[in-house]
Amino acid sequence: MAKRSALVSSYSRVQSIGILGAGLMGLEIAALNVRNFFPVRIYDSDPAMLATVHSRLAEELADVEDDEVRAEMLSLAEPGTLEELGECDLLIEAIVEKMEVKAELYQTMKPFLRPNAIFTSNTSTIPIEKLSDVFPYPKNFAGLHFLHPVWNRELVEVIPSSKTSELVLQRLSDYAISLEKTPLCVSDCPGFVVNRLLQPYLNEGLNLLLEGVPMEKVEEGALEFGMTWGPLRIMDEIGLDTVMNAGKVLYMAYPERTALSPILVSMMKKKLLGRKRGEGFYLWGENWRENVHTHDFQPSGFNPAVQKLVEKWKAEKPLDISTAEIGNRLAAAMADEAFRILEDDVVSDQGQVDMAAVIGLAFPESKRGPIAWKLYEAER
Q1: Cα–Cα nearest to 183, from 38, 61, 331, 12
Q2: Class of the 4-185 domain?
Q3: Cβ pair 342, 353 in contact under 8 A
């Protein structure tokens, strides 16, 4: 693995990273940075989260076989105060997906900001223009959206506001390349590209449950189509609370085609939030706490409590549908949104949308992306 100094001299002027938020995404982003030998300072308003940073980071880096290298990486990450994070070249905010909470943090951070430091948000759905409006130095502000799981997703969305400087965008793109990621600069809109593609896929999975299709059959249809994870597994991995918060933003932006599923609302009320709580659509076993950051950890089975919950909402007569048809429905939902993204000029061409789906959401590479697949199917 190349040392950070070599990467910096080749690609990027960013040399130190501050991460605001020590939750799942904040920790994954920290792990990615120390893997590439960037020093990282991590802040969280919850002292308990900061107290476990090193132990959780060690789990994230467990696949690094060389003990000496792993120890060096771990030594690069330290908890920090807001004042200490203010000294970093690049700050990445990775807190809860709520506008008012982010705005409050930005104001709290204001006294410690260097005017020339770059500040980014890892938001997956909130328009960058709205966040920029409440940030003290808007020309240095942009969206930098890493995808979960960070270690296994090549794409990073770079999103400017109308005030973001060209130099900031270039430095962020160079920084992403130094992390061995592919930067995709996209126009600002709710959900950007990846989440606008993902949300219909997740919604269609929930719709199939409402139509009486069993959980295991929904997932089987997705895997048969060639997806790495089915929609229910993705929601468990992301966290149902995050899915819900992102869904609310997209519902406000696109109410004519977005709805909040009663299944999701009911699961939220019962705290069935997915892997980070030990149960969601799946059960994650007795040792789920110790394996939250284990890359190859697998669930122990579907959650009968969710199946019982679905019974309240599902259609009286279950839909008779094959797994092949399920896979096609899930992919078609994503493809329809992909065409809308093109129409909205969020990216410049079809290839960028298809690339985002393939390397950002593990859409089957053999099918070349949702638009390419849909066009091919239309010609058959």
Answers
A1: 12
A2: alpha beta
A3: yes
